[in-house]
Amino acid sequence: MGVFERFSNDIGIDLGTCNTLIYVRGKGIVVDEPSVVAVEKGTKRVVAVGAEAKRMLYKTPGNISAIRPMSDGVIADIDSTEKMIKYFISKVIPRHQLFKSTRMKIGIPSCITQVERRAVIEAALKAGAKEVDVIEESLAAAIGAQIKIDEPAGHMICDIGGGTTEVSVISLGGMVVTNAIRVGGDKFDEAIVKYVLKNHNLKIGLQAAERLKKEIGNAISDKDNTIETMEVRGNDAITGLPKRLEIDNVEVREALKETVNRIVDLIKQTLGETPPELAADIVERGIIMSGGGALLKGLDKLVQKETQVPVFVADNPLECVALGAGQAFELFRDMSTDRSIYDNLND
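and the corresponding structure tokens:
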């Protein structure tokens, strides 16, 4: 370990649309909280961050605004993102360690633009990082899933986050083929909201849709065709009055069908673009799924059925990107921050 590494805080961040996870070298995952910030209007004073702020979503009085600064895997509000990162970092780095240089490696979707990439780096620098690098989420997820990415063999990873889904074929430490779409867990929730409104004239919130997804959401029926139900509450679209409704897992599966199929099609597309030699490795080794979307019941079975390739969910799908981003310091020692961003911030 070099002198700089010994006196630095090395941090890996999964700056997700739904949740932010932070990995600190030597400590593991130290933060896993919703990507939500509540600020006082006018003064912009931070009222709450993370889990506490999420409880305020859609319930705040006129003088407080609770927002999600990340959207579709990218920064929608750079000031709030900076405050969120700074808050989380202050929770995990003691004051007496502030003299150390803080290096951050942040997972980003491969489909983002150069402007969006620079926004991520700028937010991290303003939050106090001395050195910042970004790493594609699927590459970070592969590292976090303990895939031996430096082998001369093909490995496929499908990372389904809150805002994006990224599918990559990795060999010799790099991505040979990668495809990404701005579809993830948020689109699952939105699809459920639209289905319930269209088929039951009931307006429900995104948080209610998220609970439906987590508790009875599914991508394929099980062998026994088990019916599960859950009560959901909202407002009648016609009368505007409060209303309760029982929704079953068959309806939730139908609501998610179109969005799930887009992810399956992305995996098929990536397989079709994979060189034959690497495709043979994938058939033997299987597809690894990570991210919160990988936890949708039956999604791995549906992908396996549609591709005829074995599919496995990573042991820690929610933590893979943050773990991989942090562990990447050992694999990729160069910090490649765009120096022009530093120059602009220091002007």
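(Above: one complete record from the training split.) The mean pLDDT is 89.
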